[in-house]
Amino acid sequence: MKRYTDLNKIIIGGKMIKKLSVTAVLFSLISCGANMSETGNNGEPEGSHASAEWQIWAYTTAAPDFIGDFATVIGADGSVLREGTNGWRCETFMTMPEGGFEKPHDAAPACSDKNSVAWANAYKAGTIPEMEGDGWMWMIHGDLGVDNFTVGTDGQKDMGHAHFIESGPHMMLMPKDPSSLEGQSTDYTTGAPYVMFKGTPYAHLMIPLVDYYSYQPQSSPNNK
What we know:
Structural class: alpha+beta
Number of helices: 5
Shape: globular
Order of helices and strands: HHHEEEHEHEEEEEE
Radius of gyration: 17 Å
Strand order of the largest sheet: 2-1-3-4-5-8-10-9
Low-confidence stretches: 5-25, 30-40
């Protein structure tokens, strides 16, 4: 398996995404994101945040219930906490601290379809994604941030990265062919969809939902 070690040695070809079809999809997805931010109890289980019960709740609520309720759930230790029935997988993208995550946002949980599972596996392993088609990923709890142009900077908020963005609720489009995103903006301060990790095998389209800038309001277009 090829490993992602040198951006300048990666050559990826492909076609442009059809703007009309992508735009139509984005409008429907953004409307689905309303009122999905991390508010209230939302059925949070009592007890340890390291328990299987809490992890299942925290990770599956990264997507709407009509997806999360039927998804496979992977625990922080890599074990299967629950087998799903719909082909989606929910899991954390962060290492669990002793005692568990304080809140779902700290886990940066994501729910991925089949193709995005392949992307996620490759991202965690540092290998080049091998996908059968484009994939979709939900992250309604947001994430702990990353430099928009630098792979592997997850959660490095205080490391002085020039283009760091800690995201609130969003979706992501993981293209099989990253070059299909050429021509899309990389500006994460407009509120519009934008490309993260441009020029790498992990390039994907970030789709902000309601309250996207709740963890980094200074990047919101409302504060320009």
